[in-house]
Design goal:
The chain is an alpha+beta fold. The protein has five helices and 16 strands. The longest helix is centred in the first third of the chain and has 19 residues. The relative contact order is 0.10.
Length: 228
């Protein structure tokens, strides 16, 4: 009788362990392990999440960096993940409810339209492009140069809001051709820096490095914007 009771207790205990232990990770889930970039669609809110293989409530463990909960309050409730189920990657709360449902839209890139939050993205941290520049990072003194290195105009990019972006001031010694264009505003358009003149089309630039932007389209005598 004692033996039978002991066996029953062992079986019950084993059953509880099985209930709390998720099934082994398959190949797709194994590929999720490690650090990923977690962001919104504009990538002006970025943090990191690490997917782990250890058991967590109703799934596998994960860990967000400290910035995530500030940028995305929803994350405070996320305690686990599971994938794939219905070809989706689920982020779960402690009760097993899916709070975010990611689908893979490209190799290594997941997208999740999330009510009340917007579209969220996941992509491999190592493969993610650099974060987009913010206006505060761009503001300051710059020099507009011709392709041969000739200084065309000193510019001051401010963070004072305008109708279409931020204030721009032309410095002393500016070439008359630039003065006549009447540059007075600048903005960031995704990965491009845009100088908006009062007359004519906007001048668009792409980042060449942290201190240099090249005018688009690219040409042999490309105009550059260089930080002073």
């Amino acid at each position: 009788m004692r033996f039978s009771c002991a066996v029953i207790l062992v079986l019950l205990f084993a059953g509880d362990l099985d209930a709390d232990t998720p099934p082994p990770l398959n190949g797709q889930a194994q590929a999720m392990l490690g650090s990923w970039e977690f962001s919104n669609a504009d990538r002006d809110k970025i943090c990191a999440v690490t997917f782990k293989s250890g058991a967590a409530s109703n799934g596998y463990a994960l860990e967000f960096d400290s910035r995530c909960a500030v940028l995305f309050p929803l994350i405070r409730e996320i305690v686990a993940w599971k994938y794939p189920e219905d070809d989706l990657l689920y982020l779960l709360d402690a009760r097993g409810k899916a709070l975010v449902e990611f689908s893979e839209v490209e190799d290594g890139i997941f997208e999740a339209p999330t009510p009340g939050v917007g579209v969220l993205f996941l992509q491999h941290a190592a493969a993610a492009p650099p974060p987009r520049k913010l206006p505060d990072q761009i503001a300051g003194n710059w020099i507009l140069k011709a392709g041969d290195g000739t200084v065309l105009c000193p510019l001051m990019l401010a963070t004072t809001p305008t109708a279409e972006g931020f204030a721009l001031a032309v410095g002393p010694g500016c070439d008359e051709t630039i003065v006549r264009l009447g540059f007075a505003q600048w903005r960031l358009d995704r990965d491009e820096l845009v100088l908006q003149p009062a007359h004519g089309s906007a001048w668009r630039f792409e980042a060449l490095d942290d201190a240099t932007w090249g005018r688009l389209p690219e040409s042999v005598n490309r105009v550059t914007l260089v930080r002073r």
